[in-house]
Amino acid sequence: MQSTLYSKLIDAEKRQIKFDVRINEGIQLREERSIDLVRIFGNVLDNALDAAEESDKVVQLSAAPTEKCNVFRVTNMIPGDTTIDLSKVARFGVTTKQGHMGIGMSNIRRLARQGITVEQTIDDRQFVTTIHVPKA
Description:
By secondary structure, this protein is α+β, with helices and mostly antiparallel strands. The protein has one domain: Histidine kinase-like ATPase, C-terminal domain (Heat Shock Protein 90, 2-Layer Sandwich). The chain has three helices and five strands. The radius of gyration is 14 Å and the shape is globular.
């Protein structure tokens, strides 16, 4: 997870995107979930960085433990000319990006298992992805 986060920070810097990361020290992850989590976070952060590049150039990542799980939240603005239908976005082949195949969000849903849940919401043009991961 750390190397994925570091590579996304470098990517954001190259694209001149402010990447605001706030991770609580109490986060504990199970080792057996690491491959799926890396793929989920890689995809979610790629999507957020792509959207930020075409909007306000800001991505926020926060992580904090609760009693039962760790809650990760990635937030970015939706580009002004983009319309997102949350009921369709996780289907295979659906994309809002030109030249993309639309497999990323469906992969996130497929990988979210073993107690991992992924929720996407839109609040006042902000796209929010919340990932709940059981504690170690």
